[in-house]
Specification:
By secondary structure, the chain is an alpha+beta fold. It contains 4 helices and 5 strands. It has a domain of 84 residues. Strands 1-2-3 form a 3-stranded antiparallel β-sheet. A hairpin with a 2-residue loop joins strand 1 and strand 2.
Length: 139
């Protein structure tokens, strides 16, 4: 048994954007693989929450493991389609907060976020985005 959450590597701040890009790739590949057999949309029937079905028509969970109602709701909330949508949005946020070279106060060229204008790069937005994937700010 593995736990993908615990296998996530930590990285230094200067590597946050590339680490996040790799993490988005990894999460996307897991969601795509999970969708292959039974489709990307997973739903449950509130009256029969122990049955979680895929949009491909097959049951993913059927009276085995017996998820509780809240667990069934959580599984269907974070189905492959939801994860892929989140990854796509996060990729766009990461791309918008790219690092650009700007002329600084001392007439020198400095790295800055293209959206925030922050000279701390990657910017706070990228760092917070990475935290959502398990990255931790070094102490
Ligand atoms: Zn930014």
């Amino acid at each position: 048994m593995t736990n993908d959450q615990q296998k996530r590597p930590k990285s230094m701040p200067s590597d946050v954007a590339s680490w996040l890009q790799s993490e988005l790739d990894r999460v996307e590949q897991i969601a795509q693989a999970a969708a292959v057999a039974d489709g990307p949309v997973w739903t449950y029937n509130p009256g029969d929450y122990w049955i979680i079905s895929g949009s491909g028509g097959g049951p993913l969970v059927y009276d085995e493991g017996t998820p509780t109602g809240p667990q069934a709701r959580h599984i269907s909330l974070w189905d492959p389609q939801s994860v892929l949508r989140r990854v796509a949005a996060d990729r766009r946020i990461l791309a918008e907060h790219k690092i650009v070279r700007v002329l600084g106060w001392a007439a020198d060229w400095q790295d800055s976020c293209a959206i925030c204008g922050s000279f701390q790069v990657p910017c706070r937005t990228v760092r917070l985005l990475a935290e959502g994937y398990g990255w931790e700010e070094p102490q």
